[in-house]
Each structure stands twice: as structure tokens, then as C-alpha cells.
Write a structure and sequence with these properties.
The protein is an alpha/beta fold. Helix content is 48%, strand content 14%.
Length: 801
Amino acid sequence: MNFRDFLQQNIVILDGGMGTLLQERGLQPGEQPERWNLSHPEDITAIHKAYFDNGSNVVNTNTFGANLLHYDEAELSAVIKAAVANAQQARKLSDAPQEKYIALDIGPTGRLLKPLGDLDFEEAVAVFAKTVQIGAACGVDLVMIETMNDSYETKAALLAVKENCDLPVIVSNAYTDKGKLMTGASPAAMTAMLESMGADAIGVNCSFGPDKLQPIVEEYLRCASIPVILKANAGMPTNVGGKTLYNILPPSFADITARMVQKGVRVVGGCCGTTPDYIGELCNKIKAFAPDRAERIIKKNTTVISSYTDAVTFSDDPVLIGERINPTGKKRLKEALRNNELDYILSEGLKQQSAGAQVLDVNVGLPEIDEPAMLTKVVYELQAIIDLPLQIDTSDPVAMESALRIYNGKPLLNSVNGKQESMDAIFPLMKKYGGTAIALTLDENGIPDTVEGRVAIAKKIIDTAASYGIDKKDLVFDTLAMAVSADNNAAKVTLGSLNIIRHQLGAHTSLGVSNISFGLPQRDIVNATFFALALENGLSAAIMNPFSAEMMKTFYAYRVLKGLDENCSDYIAFADTVQNNIIIGEKAAGGKVDEQLTLHGAVTKGLKEPAAKLCKELLKTIEPLTIVNEHIIPALDEVGRDYEQGRVYLPGLLMSAEAAKCAFEEIKATMSDSGGKTKCAFVIATVHGDIHDIGKNIVKLLLENYGFAVSDLGKDVAPEVIVEETVRLHAPLVGLSALMTTTVPAMEETIRQLRVAAPWAKIVVGGAVMTKEYAASIGADQYAKDAMDTVRYAEKVNGEL
């Protein structure tokens, strides 16, 4: 039976951890686990066989870190071929009766993708693609992408798999204690993107034990229409007598995980700290209650789009799509597009978000510009500073694909229509990259002037989409608001079509509301009333101007009257802005006046070029250190507090830091003349054997913005090198990072040497495998749960010097 069929009909048992088992067999600190496929094949085969013998249906090849960033092509090919051969040999040797499959294991690169890091999206796709090509040629049965903590890197890996083989692919992500990925994505957002892109199963692995992951898994179960994965750690690590132990034993692990299977999880296994004994206990527990395996996957039929952090669901509660990034009738925006003034475009997006838009339409169509290049650039830059989903709005399929490819999430596509040419161009793009499409009820014969004609086109689009494997839930129908000034019946036909499509065909709907009043005076009066009529007839989403006071009044009043606004809280907040005359022209209709941008505001919003320009202007009248202490640092502190309290995610924190960095560039020379950095030296490194430096790089960026003299030694740094630099600088602070369990001994050895050679230094540690207790047990002074935690500790130590 092929794996896809097996997955649909059975509970799938994965394997458990690999790193801790290799350490028990002699893997040395700093030694790459993947090289053991060549040097110790008998050990790798024995571990795989033990998992098969204890009931695993799937074992992962020992290739978690096998990619072109860590190995040259020749060694990479040898490592992967040996890894697959070892797993195949284990399958051959095992006498266990269950179905057995081999998954090509793909882990993260260890680098953060642009614009937050230095790895280009297409470079990441190419890196993963080479691993996939080699593994697929060796005869694996499926691919498992795991432990991804960034939605963008996850997309790059999944795209590489889909473009280079036709194997089944299952995807699991590693979540923080806030229930989000490191870069902010919720389980709902990841479900929207990965399911739409065609993953065969999705879920969570690593991070915590199954008890702590339960709320995240339950959110997957609420959202997903495909099998859900749970591959938890054996609890949290502790250091006992120099040995790493975990606090959840096999019986408890099996009991908690099996309860999640009863709730609907279909794919289970173990991650860090788990062994074949854990898998054996889990298999026995699952067999004991014999779940009904045929009816566990419930199709949710949810129409949803997502940004890199959050999902927006189409329901009875209307969605507002901001229309202002569209050059039609907007002279200033046309100028910005022609002159490549991205600052203006980004500010339009930020203002619409402040005004209450839940999705942003992005249209850059001007005949004199390179639309594919500009649309891609604007989408990329908007997603760097705004966490709203985007509606990619273009009639050019080339521009559409270019923007879709780099979009971080599941976008809204505007648009497809009933013309066969349009459907044949857009539906393959949706199938490959994911997305929900606005479907216009027009075809080769134009726009029908009857309800029946527009509904018939909607049915044709639904049927054609189905032939491409696209469900009705991923179509949102626009029944086309036409100007009533030209046709008295225009509104009635639009509303009648909308009502039938929403309530009889069961599809969601959208309208460009303001088209209805074209050619009339006082257009907002007509628009607002038509908006109310459309909502009552089943309008799911409105493409509209969020700065229109009349339109926003209708929106908030409708939600109150339909019982969609609990305790009328949104309406009351909105009414307060009206009462205080805050809504004026293009001021923010959601409450805040669109004040002139300041350096503080540019930094908090992550606007790099404005931050540099505003800083340069301030330097004419204000001392450099005053700018730093009264403008830049307070802005960073504000964003830091919001990050710590969960109001801002890592991308927002990093973009603010980048904006501050741009401001610092303007005053660097002047600061140097006036004293420069005033804070102590901070030596930072990823420990020996660990090639993941995302966390370390984030900490470095923030520390530098706070004025620390950071000496970054890089990744895979030997203890002696860290000690030598600490002594050379007489640095009072040292930061050590480790992602993998196998590299914690190197961290412990580094701390031991530092205590001897640099007893004055305070040592702060962090990384995915670290806990406060574990940090204390290996001799660290401080455990930092994230980058801002490191900054706060460094500020404290610096203040005590």
C-alpha cells in the first residue's frame, strides 16, 4: 500500500528521537550526526530497526541537517544515499508485521530568510531542492519537513518538495510557549497555507512534551481538513550528573499522546528524548482503545486566507478589504509607483490597517511600469511591516505568479472569471502556491444583465475549479457592482446574484462596493446604503475605503444589529472616535489620527528609509546621543515591551531594529566623535557543532541597537575560541546559543572553561533545547527565553559595572 492510501485509512506511527541515541553511542560534541551515516552505518541501522521493531510505520532518515549550507554537493549526496540505505537495511532486517515506510527527513537551514535574515527565499528553495532530488532518487516513500519555526522557510521547503518530486509530504512546525512559531505564525495560519499548498499531513513536533503541545494540536484539529501530526518531546530536558534526561517517562508520554489520537490526531511519534521504548508504549496504548480509523478526518469547508502570522476566515462576520493601494483614480499613488516611492505605499498600508482593514488589496497596474517586478516588490515589502493578509490584484498571470511565489501565507487572488482562458491561467497557480480566489461573474460574453446569467457563470467556475482539484471553499464570488447612474436595475441584479450564490450555492461573496455610485454626487451616501443592503443579502467581504466615515458607520452598526459585536464593544470604541471628530478625510477611521511621522514612529513601525531621513533631519538641531536616548531607544523599548507581551511578533521586533540601525548609520560618525558606544563588550556565539545561528543573530542585532559592543564569533565555535575572545576583551558578558540536543555538551564545556579563564564573565544561554533549570544545571548565570530577555539581562549587568 502506498503511503498516501495508508495515511487516509490508518493511525500512522512515526519514530522517535535520534540525537540523544547517537550521543549514547558515542557521538562527540561538535560532531555532525549526518556523517554517522557513512562512518557508523551499523549504529544508524540499529536505531532505525529498533523503531520498526517497536511498531513505527515510518522512520526518518538521519538527514535532519543534510543540505548544501552544511555540506558540499559531493558529500551531501554521499550522506543522503547512505542515510536512505541504512533505513532500507533496517526495514529489511525488521520482522515486525506493520506497514513500514521511509521518510526523507528535512530540518531547518539554521538561517533566517530575508527580509528578517540574510537567506534569500529562492536560495532556500534551491537548498532544499537538492536534498529532495537526491533523497527521492534513492527511493524514499515520503518526505517529512520538521522542526520549522518560520512560516516562510516552511513554504520554501514545501515548494522545493512539490517542484522536485511527487512523493507524499508531511510537515510539522516547532512552536514557542506563546503558541506561535518563532516568527509569529499561529496554527490556524500554518494550516491555511500548508493545506492550500497540498501538504498531506500537518502538525507540530519538538519544543515541549505532549501535555504542553495539546492546545496547539487542538487548534490544528479545529482548522485542518487533512491528517494532523503530533511528535512531541519527552518533556523538558534536565541535566543529571552530566547526562541529559527528560521528565516524561514512556507510560505517561504514551497516555497523553494516545488521548490526542482519540481527539482526532492521525500521525504520532516522538521527538527529542524519546526512544524506541516510548514508541512501543505508544503503539500498545493506541491498540488498546482501537480508534475508529475511517472517520477521524473532518472536512472543515472553511474559506480562509492568511498572512505570515494570522488567518482571516470568511463567515457571517464581514471582512473589510482596504482598497487604497490601487492606482485607479489616485494620482499620488501613480506618482509613487512611477518613482518607486515604496515609503508612500507602505504608509498607505499602515494607515488602512489602523483604520480597521482586515485585508489589503495590492494593485500596481500601470502600463508604463514593470508590473511583475513592482507587484512582487510591494507584496514583499508590505509583508515585512504589516501582518494583514494581502489580496494580490492583477490581470497579468506572470505578475500573479511572481507575487504568489514569494507571498508568506495563503493570499487572496483578485481575480479569476468565467472565461476559460482566465481559469486555465489562474487555477494551476492556485493549485501550486495555494490561495483563495475572487471569482468575477463574467465570461467571454461579458457581464450578464440578469441574476440567472451571473449565477450560471458562478456554477461554471465552481465546476471548472473542481476539475483542477480546487474546492468551492477557495472561491469568493464577486457579482460585480455596476453604476446605478447608468442602469437603474444594476444594484438589484448584483444583490440578487449575491443572495443566491451565498445562500443557495453556499459560496462566499465579495464586492467592490464603491463602483455602485460612479457618476453620482455625494457617493458615500449611496455606497453606505448599498453596503448595508449587500450585507443583508449575504456579502462576506467588501473591497472598500476604510477611511470612509459613512461606510465604517454601516459596518459597525451592522455587526451590532446582527449580534456579531460582543457587548457592542467595537461599536462603542468606534462611536467614541466619531463623537470626538477623529474621523476627518483620510484620518484613521478606526480611532487614531494619522499624525505626521516621527523618528519614534518610523522605528516602531519598522520603516527603514523614513527612519534614516528623519534622523538626518534631527541631527541638524539635536545632539546625536540625545537622539539615541530620547528617540531611538524609547521606540525600541516600546516595541520590546509589545513583543514580550505578545502584541508584536519577531518580524515586527526585527524590522524595528533594522529601522533603528538605519537611523544609527546616519549618526555613527557623530556618535564616534562624541563618545560612541557607552556600554560593555558582549561576546556571542553558537556553540561548537551547532550550525544554527538564527537566535544568535537576532540577539546581536538588538544588543547593537542598545549600544553594546558585540563581538560575534559566528556559529560552530570551539570553546577555546570563545574563551580567548572573552579574555582578550575582558568582556563582562558572554552569550551562548544551541538549538540541538547533541550540542548542549559543547555549551557545558564552554561554560566550564570560561569559569576557569574568565571568572568575572556573566554567561547567558538560550536556544530551543534550553530551559531555566537546564541552564542552571550546566553553570550558566542566566537563561534567556528570547532576544529581548537577553537585552534586559545585559542592561542589568551593564548597569551594575
